[in-house]
Design goal:
The complex is a heterodimer of chains A (333) and B (79). Chain A has 333 residues and is an all-alpha fold. Chain A folds into two domains: 81 residues; 224 residues, Heme Oxygenase, Chain A (Up-down Bundle), CATH 1.20.910.10. Chain A contains 14 helices and one strand, in the order αααααβααααααααα. The longest helix of chain A is centred in the C-terminal third of the chain and has 32 residues. Chain A is globular. Chain B is an all-beta fold and 79 residues long. In chain B, the strands form two sheets. Chain B has a three-stranded antiparallel beta sheet with strand order 1-2-5, with no helix packed on it. A two-stranded antiparallel sheet of chain B has the order 3-4. Chains A and B meet through strand 1, helix 6, helix 7, helix 9 and helix 12 of A and strand 5 and strand 6 of B. The complex binds FE2/S2 (inorganic) cluster (FES) and fe (ii) ion (2 copies). FE2/S2 (inorganic) cluster binds next to loops of chain B. Chain A: This is Iron-containing redox enzyme family protein. Chain A: InterPro entries: Haem_Oase-like_multi-hlx.
Chain lengths: 333, 79
């Protein structure tokens, strides 16, 4: 988890121009903003460009100066990319997720299906996932889990009172409650070691699908904008509420395939931790936020709907690739 | 100066779910053994269905007859 990676390979004109600007201090081409407005909102080029721009706020890239984080031209490009992504999400969530109350949306997420309807990635992995599939899944998820909980830390100064205290309680646990070896990011690196994967930060960025980048970009987008704080809370509540049962299935998959003790440990830890995080998120963070700012209910709902939408797209892409006997990565392991 | 009175430890009851309490916590079990959790916040199972008893693992949740409106949400297996 120590070394950083260099800039990824471009996937189209937007990411090409951006990589050129960051690597060789080239100016952005004059049509970059109009290209951003008309790009495929879920496509590789836009999602990679957005991911690179957000990464400047986290660990950055080897060979890219820290001053780029606040470069006005890059921020302008980021805003154009975000507008395209956000517009598409708002439109699609309005179609796919008509819930009008947060308590109802969250209690729907609390119902476990009695059996798998064939669309569940974790059910597939628990039942018949191969070690190769578990490795692909972990390589993809590493784009998030090696910075697990970081996108959510941005929201803390934007909250107050109960919501803030609850959010910090969850984050403290994510960050190992004061123990570096227990950071969930570190537990994931340990899982990767058991699976024979490279634990350097962003090592699998070139391999990561647009669907995975979209999942992480949503968190960064919501975390970095005060105006989207309600949606960030909805996003985090969704993953915490749904995590325990899925983690149990992944722990079972790791046991069945003999993946190793650290691989099992990461998921076992999340069965137990996220049973607690669910409680804190629902009662303290969502409850506290909506008691203080009831007008944010529709934003919390948007965060829930967008998360479900992007996680479903991610699961569907993996299952489709494996069903066709293909790798789910852009560059096979 | 007086030392501040010690604050009472609050237990929150999730209806149909766990007791949520500040850790560390020890639970004395029927068989005489004691389980300990060092978590800052602990969810103690009350439904007795947990596979990690005495800690809640969300086994208390309702199950839908297939396929429910919630049709599986994976949560990525960890958050
Ligand atoms: S109360 Fe949650 S598993 Fe028993
Ligand atoms: Fe975690
Ligand atoms: Fe969590």
């Amino acid at each position: 988890m120590t070394a950083r990676s260099g800039l990824p390979k471009p996937r189209g004109p937007l990411s090409q121009a951006l990589v050129g600007a960051l690597r060789h201090a080239q100016d952005m081409p004059p049509d970059a903003l109009s290209r951003a407005a008309s790009a495929d909102p879920y496509g590789d080029d836009l999602q990679l460009a957005l991911n690179i721009l957000y990464e400047l706020h986290y660990q950055g890239f080897d060979g890219v100066g820290d001053e780029h984080e606040w470069d006005p031209d890059l921020l302008r490009l980021r805003a154009a990319l975000e507008a395209t992504f956000l517009d598409a999400l708002r439109g699609d969530v309005a179609q796919s997720f008509p819930a009008s109350r947060v308590d109802e949306a969250l209690s729907d997420l609390l119902v476990e299906p009695a059996r798998d309807d064939g669309t569940s990635l974790s059910h597939h992995l628990a039942r018949e996932g191969t070690l190769g599939q578990l490795r692909e899944h972990a390589a993809l998820r590493s784009i998030y889990h090696l910075k697990e909980a970081d996108p959510h830390a941005w929201v803390i100064p934007r909250l107050r009172g109960r919501a803030k205290a609850g959010m910090v309680a969850v984050e403290y646990d994510e960050y190992g409650a004061g123990h570096a070896d227990q950071l969930h990011q570190q537990l994931f690196a340990d899982l990767m070691t058991d699976l024979g994967l490279d634990t350097s930060y962003n090592h699998y960025l070139d391999a990561a699908s647009a669907e995975m980048l979209a999942v992480v970009n949503l968190m960064s987008l919501l975390g970095l904008h005060r105006a989207l704080r309600g949606a960030l809370v909805g996003q985090f509540a969704t993953v915490e509420v749904t995590s325990s049962p899925g983690s149990r299935r992944l722990a079972d998959a790791m046991r069945r395939t003999g993946a190793g003790p650290a691989a099992i440990r990461f998921h076992d830890e999340h069965v137990e931790a996220d049973a607690v995080h669910e409680q804190l998120m629902r009662h303290e963070v969502v409850g506290g936020l909506l008691a203080e700012e009831p007008d944010l209910e529709k934003d919390v709902l948007f965060g829930i709907g967008a998360t479900v939408l992007l996680e479903d797209r991610f699961s569907a892409a993996l299952l489709a690739a494996w069903r066709e006997g293909r790798s789910a990565l852009r560059e096979p392991l | 100066m007086h030392a501040p009175a010690e604050r009472a430890r609050r237990v929150t009851i999730d209806p149909g779910g766990p007791l949520v309490v500040e850790g560390p916590v020890e639970v004395a079990l029927d068989d005489g053994s004691v389980e300990r959790s060092e978590r800052p916040t602990v969810a103690v199972c009350t439904c007795r269905r947990s596979r990690r008893y005495p800690w809640c693992d969300t086994s208390h949740r309702r199950r839908s007859r297939p396929p429910g409106p919630a049709a599986d949400k994976d949560g990525g297996g960890g958050a």
